[in-house]
Structure formats: structure tokens, C-alpha cells
Amino acid sequence: MVIRTQNVKTLFALSPAKLNLFLHVTGRRPDGYHSLQTVFQLLNWGDDMRFEWQESPGITLSGDTDDIAPENNLILRAAKLISPSDQGAHIHVRKRIPRGGGLGGGSSNAATTLLALNRLWELRLSMEALLDFGETIGADVPVFIQGQSAWAEGIGEVLTPVSLPKRWFVVAQPDCMVSTAEIFAHPELTRQTPPITVQAFFSGAGRNDLQPVVESRYPEVQRAVEWLKKHSPDARMTGSGACVFASLESEQEAHDIAAQAPAGLAVIVAEGLERLPDMQEVTE
Fold it and tell me: CATH number of the domain at 8-161, please?
């Protein structure tokens, strides 16, 4: 039984989107997973989540994930991993991060759930324990638990914090959902990119190895890349797509580009985060 001492009734949290500033597939492991190199950049834009303490045990969920089966809902899966027998919670989520966009929405929601419920229920689980729980849900979950931009290797779970320059991002959201499993299984995917160093990345090395396969199968992504490259030659896809981003030095420059988006292409402007913002508490 957990004895609560802080009397926090509600937590409000940003569940942030992420970008893969580059993504190299460096091999394929015997278990079928791919070894990767990437840099995760967190954004100050994402989903809004609310966590309300309940005296009665159990988890209830409302909001924009109601159409996802409970067994596939990463928020519920995360909550059940650490749910105590003598407390409960209601979770509400307002989604902004598109599904199948390569922005890590589901992983971010799961990580935010673990962090928030650990605090709301006063479970006092260590960061190491939370990271272990997160890794069982998905390879992208740990970076959101760690809560800062990171160099990642392994299947994405071996993290080294990095300090990234302050940047603004234009993120284009093509009207399609890309299947990560489909792209990683594609026979034309490059799987043997030589590893690079952190220094090489900061010197401009890096690409997204998944992008050519996605562009060949999703013309919406190809069109978004072509448009954004006209304004920023280094524009590229994040994750397994479908979203495409450009990195800019100023907010004004980012907004100027976003204002020129073609009809039908959703675009947002976001600032890169060094670390996650604190959750907001409401006490008794």
C-alpha cells in the first residue's frame, strides 16, 4: 500500500513530439530488429494529457484515442505496468501528433503516462525502473522518459544526452499514415550504412535511410519533401514518415516558410526543446 503525502489531485503534461534529425540503419540483428543510429530532437509541441487521481483502483481513459483497442493503446499498456492495487486514475488526452507520422506520438504518450502516474501515485520508481518499463512498450519510449534530446543507438534505446543548438522547425504532415513495419520489411531498404560519430553529425553528416523507400510508396510524402526542399535544401523525413521537417535558425523564417505551404498540406512550426517542461500540479 502506498501512503500519499503530497495530495496532488491532477497533473497536466505536454506529451511532446520528436524528430529524428537523421536516421541510419546500420544492420539487422538475429532477432529481426534493426540496429540504428539517430539523434532525437524533442519539440515544444505535442499532445495535451491530464491525469486525475482516483481513490478507487483502475484506469479510465477518455479523449482522442477512443478508437484504439485497449490492448493496442500504449497509454493503457503503460498505466497497467505500474498500476497499484489501492489507487486509480482517469487519463484524458487531446491529440495533435498525427498517427503514422514518425513523430513518436504513441511512444510519447506512454512515456508521459509512466512519468505522470509515478508522480501522481507517489510510487517513487527510479528513472532506471521507468526506462526498463518503457523499453518493454517500444524502442522510442525511453527517450521521452529521459526527457531530453539524445544520440541513440541499438534499436533506439541506447541513449546519450546531447546538447543541440537552438532551432525552429517547420513540420509538414502529409495526409497519409506510413506503416513502420512495412518500411523496415521492404527489400529495398538500406540496412548497412556505416556508423558515424557524433562529431560527424554536428559537421553535417547524416540522412534518413528510410526516406527513399517511403517516397517510392507514398507520393504524398514525396511531394512534401520536394516542396520543403525548395525552401530548405536539408529538409528530410522524420522516423519512418510520413512527416517531413526543415530546421531553421529563427522563428520568423520558420513561419514565413509555413505560410507558403501548398493547399491541403498541414504544417506546424515548433521550437526544439533541450529538456521537457515541468508538469503542472493541482493539489487538494
Answer: 3.30.230.10
